[in-house]
C-alpha cells in the first residue's frame, strides 16, 4: 500500500499540516497511523468533510475583515452581493471563491455563517502564500510585522522611502529566487508593501516584479494583530489553493455556492491598468469563464459572477449580455476607489450575473 505523509496530505487537500494531524488524532482519516513523530496515511485517503454544520452566526465578537487593501475589492458591494447568499437552503453547505483577491465576500460569509467546506484560490502566488502563512504561521508573521512596523513608523519621509524601496527590492528578489523557507518573510513583506504603497495597489510589470511607489500615509497600521489573529482562526477550515479557477471544478457540486470575481474587463482603452499578476485576462478568457460557469450550472451549483459594465463607456457594447445570455444580469452602482487617475474614481455601474 502506498502511503503519504501529513505534509503531502496537507499539500494535496489545501489545508495546513497541523489540521491534518488533528484529523488523524481524531481518527477521522481511515488507516492513519503515527510512525515515530510523523503521521502517515494511505495515498488514496480522502479529505474528511468538516463535521460542523451550516448555520447563521449573529455575533461580531470574532468578526474579521480583509487584511489587504485590494483593487476591485467588493466591500462596497457586499449589500448587493449578500442578497444572493443561498445558505438558508439546507442543500447549500459549501462555498467556493476561485478569484479570492482581498476576500471581502469570503470574510463576510465567514462572519455570518459556518460552512461545512470552503475553497478559495487565486493565481497570484504571493497573495495565496500570505493567506496560507496567516492560517498556518500567524505568531511568526506577527512578530515580523511588528518588527517592520517599529522600524518604519519613526522614520522621516526620506528615510521611509529608502526603507520602502529596500523592502520592495527584497520582496521582488524573494518572488523570483526565493524558496519555501522564506515564505513567512515574503508574506510579511506583502502586507508591509500593501499597507505603505501608493493607494494600496498590487501591480506588477511584465517581468512580474512589484513596481508600486510608496504612498503618503502618516501612520499606517502595518500590523493589525487582532484582525490577523481572528483571520487566522477563521482560515483554519478553509482550503487554500494557488492556481487557475478551473481547479475549483473538483470542489464545486450541487451543494456549492460559487462566487467568481475575475479581473475586470477594461471599460476604456486606457484602463488596462489592472496588472495584478503578469498574466492578463482578455476577452477570450472572459468567454472561457462564461463557459465554465455554464458547466458549474449543469452540476447544479448556485453561481454569481461580477464584472465591469462596458455600457459605462459604450451603450452599444453587449459583450457580457451576449456571453451570459442564459443568466440573470443585474446592474449595480459602485464607486471606483482605486485608480492611478483621480478623475477616474467615482460612481460607475458593475454587473452581478447569476444562474438563480
Provide keyphrases for this structure.
356 residues, 35% helix, single chain, globular, 12 strands, alpha/beta
Would you summarize the structure shown here?
The chain has 356 residues and is of the alpha/beta class. It is 35% helix and 17% strand.
Binned strand content: 15-25%
Order of helices and strands: EHHEEEHEHEEHHHHHEEHEHEE
Cα Rg: 21 Å
> Which structural class should the secondary elements be placed in?
alpha/beta
Q: So how many helices?
A: 11
Quaternary state of this entry equals single chain
Shape: globular
Widest sheet, order of strands: 8-7-5-9-10-12-11
Number of strands: 12
Q: Please summarize the sheet with the most strands.
A: 7 strands, mixed
**Roughly what percent helix?**
25-40%
| Poorly predicted runs | 51-59, 270-274, 337-345
Distance between the termini: 45 Å
* Averaged pLDDT: 88
